[in-house]
Amino acid sequence: MLDRRGINWRNYFMEKELVFGHQKPDTDAITAAMAYSYFQNQLGYETEAVALGEPNAETQFALKKFGMQAPRVIKTAANEVDKVMLVDHNEPQQSVSDIDKLTVTHLVDHHRIANFNTAQPLWANLRPYGCVSTILTEMFQEKHIDIPANLAGMMLSAIISDTLLLNSPTTTDHDREAVEHLAKIAGVDDYEKYGVEMLKAGADVDAKSDADIVDGDAKTFELGGTKLRIGQVNAVELDDVFKRQADLEKKMRELMDANGYQVFILIATNILNSDSELLVIGDDTAKVEQAFNHKLDDHHRMNLPGVVSRKKQVVPPLTKVFEG
């Protein structure tokens, strides 16, 4: 039976579920888990937000700004629960290691759907927005559930992160409206100023290890039988990344050998001018060149002006070539 807010009180007697985003979590993956868990708890579910990795420097900056604690990190979930809710991902290779032992009951995502199958029907909210936190903002509004100020601040931070302060081609009017809405709730008078501060906090390349740079924000994709690892790092100056190229390549090859990646692509993105440069190693580099209609130089690099989105500008052309 539903009450006036649409809450099914029978949910209170349901078993606990974990809510989490993808491996190597970014600000949206961490925040979306926190926000969706809060949302579902208001509807009567018993959930806990967890993470599949430690928060990065950018996320830590936002958490400190808004006085929130990061979710605890888990390696497996089936030892705790039978059911889970996924946010900001759906591809199993990006999820918890024992996802095949769990029942996915809910999914909120803004990525492509790939290799995702369930044995039972589920609740799914998929929208082609710039950020999952934008989808969640609208879900809160649709259910007339108030967003706490500190959580609104984290959701604001997630949208700024995923859209590079609304400059990414993934940005929609929904994202712009959500940023205005969340900034008011969070008490952020100048979200652009705050956004630059947050992005710069996450773009301090000198403070990152080689592994943090190449794999700190990386995802695995299975494209036409080829296993690609695609990482992305933000920087204020791309020279700060590539002055360490020899060490970065060494780390990339170590990860390839350990995990069976056939191609490793690192996207280094300048957050100030929205340009990127790719570092590519492994097999089938000719296909990467074909995907972007650019040649790799003698340093295995390719300049791609205006490319900032892995989801919209990098994975689609690679998919077309590798699966064509």
Automatic annotation (TrEMBL):
This is inorganic diphosphatase. It catalyses: diphosphate + H2O = 2 phosphate + H(+). It comes from Limosilactobacillus antri DSM 16041. Its cofactor is Mn(2+). Keywords: Hydrolase, Manganese, Metal-binding. InterPro entries: DDH_dom (IPR001667), DHH_sf (IPR038763), DHHA2 (IPR004097), DHHA2_dom_sf (IPR038222). It holds the Pfam family DHHA2. Gene3D superfamilies: DHHA2 domain, inorganic pyrophosphatase (n-terminal core). Residues 195-322 form the DHHA2 domain.
